[in-house]
Amino acid sequence: MKVLSTSLTPGDQLPALLERIERREKAARSRAVLYSFLPVALTVVLLGYTASSVGDAQKQVDALKTEATTYTTQIDTLKKNAETYKTQSQSLQGDTENYKNQVTELQAQLAEAQKALSEAVNLSRAVRTIDSANAKELASHFPGSESLMLDILDLRQRRIKWKLGGQSLQEGFDSPSFAMYILKQKRASGIELPPGESLSEASRSLYDKLPPTTQPRTGDLVFYPAGYAMFYFADPREGSFVLGMTPFGITALKSDFAKPVGYRQVQWR
After folding, report:
1. Which residue from 127, 178, 197, 216 has the highest number of Cβ atoms inside 10 Å of its Cβ?
2. CATH code of 228's domain
3. Of 56 and 253, which is predicted with more confidence?
């Protein structure tokens, strides 16, 4: 049996070789296209990831800005509240000081009232009854004294009241300011109010303005430790007495109701 030869001639092998080369070129081109597309795809992916990350970061930044704005607003509110509390605290401190001052003033007024009450109790034991009939009787012994006494009794009839530091008929007088008022009204010698000086201020220096005397006469002033300045009246029948303003009004008292600080002579015109 004759065996056929399977070997190909060069002419037969050429198409197959060309086909193989073509397939290899296609594969190479495919790989080249793939290799060139791959960086682009990776770049697109990276850009997308980067954009997403940037977007997330921007959202976080915006959120942080919003939180910062909120915190800033809260801080501003806290500052305003702190200023308000500070102002309220200062106001409360001022109110506390005012209350302390009011309490101190009330305590002083209470002490003054207690003192006045105590003096009133003591003075009540030395009250001397006096009226216009006594004025006329005394005038027979001491000419000129009737006018002074009647003027004072007229003010008593009008119920001029006691007022510490007072200096008018409307508000009342304390003892020295009442004496100063009478001296001024009766135009006693040496009694003048300097410009700008109040009746109350002038009365505080009354003791130093008038000449001293050891033998008081009717119409002179007698000064006592409690601050009283009373007009002296001699009464040969019932004993001397003083007349002036006291915590319970214009009153006549026995001249020895307290030990005098001193006597001051009044020159009546």
Report:
1. 178
2. 3.90.1720.10
3. 253
